[in-house]
């Protein structure tokens, strides 16, 4: 599909609560926004979707073209994607299915939308079936976000939960396990790394400078936290390097690096919460913007 055609569909989708006409009329459609594999810039495409086994699926068919579509290559590099479904918008982790799981899901897709079977027949590549996983809500009652302290704890809760999940998957990634576990683990681990990068970048560029300005007594604390960011960042780069290929070539080394990340990150998060939460609790979130007359 041409870029102009996609743009028209995207505009119609957003203007009509997910309903569109033309070739997509009456079909199940969503908008998928990925981050460019190299540029990091957002790219949005309209895609047909299928629900099966309680999962939301999209297929990287490219109408049976010989190569994978760019949006699929993007999500292999950056698994966290934005999904627009009807009037709902949410973030998801994109995980291509593999092996018997992929075959079962593809068979379900073809039963729901036989055209995908025709696309598969016209290409020698196996059409990827991608599961769009909504992150699980943290256990316990959700915290109401009223201050920057609450927002920090929300981010820390996600990081801790995602890292625990990845480490659990890594421990089960042993010789003889199904091949699909490798790609699932890879996507979840990359999603954690992307989330960690985003969180620390936000702290380094905005939160820490603001605290340094308003709370000079925290200068030493902020310097130590910045040093911890850099140390954790080096471990993160080791993880990303291990996940460079589609298959995880060194699972034992990956487990070792995940254990090291867990020890360093947990100590850092505990330290950050103990030192910064009192000051951050006084800062409302979302920020209160001054009115034009200054009131």
Automatic annotation (TrEMBL):
Residues 149-280 form the Hemerythrin-like domain. Gene3D superfamilies: Electron Transport, Fmn-binding Protein, Chain A (2.30.110.10), nmb1532 protein domain like (1.20.120.520). It comes from Kitasatospora cathayae. SUPFAM superfamilies: FMN-binding split barrel. Belongs to the F420H(2)-dependent quinone reductase family. This is Nitroreductase/quinone reductase family protein. InterPro entries: F420H2_quin_Rdtase, Hemerythrin-like, Split_barrel_FMN-bd. It catalyses: oxidized coenzyme F420-(gamma-L-Glu)(n) + a quinol + H(+) = reduced coenzyme F420-(gamma-L-Glu)(n) + a quinone. Pfam families: F420H2_quin_red, Hemerythrin. CDD domains: Hr-like.
